[in-house]
Amino acid sequence: xxxxxxxxxxxxxxxxxxxxxxxxxxxxxxxxxxxxxxxxxxxxxxxxxxxxxxxxxxxxxxxx
Length: 64
Prior knowledge:
The chain is mainly alpha-helical. About 55% of the residues lie in helices and about 0% in strands. It has three helices and no strands. The chain has helices spanning about 5-20, 45, 50-64.
């Protein structure tokens, strides 16, 4: 592992450690966020409905 990769990994770990003990909630639905979630939205709110519809259409087309 190169020095640059090691520094990046340490930075990510330190950011997560700073989140420990802090209450972080989704901006949209106010669900609690994990310290591992780098986003301000939870997984449920971060999903784009049009992407889901497109994926479902592709699945239906593949089943035919």
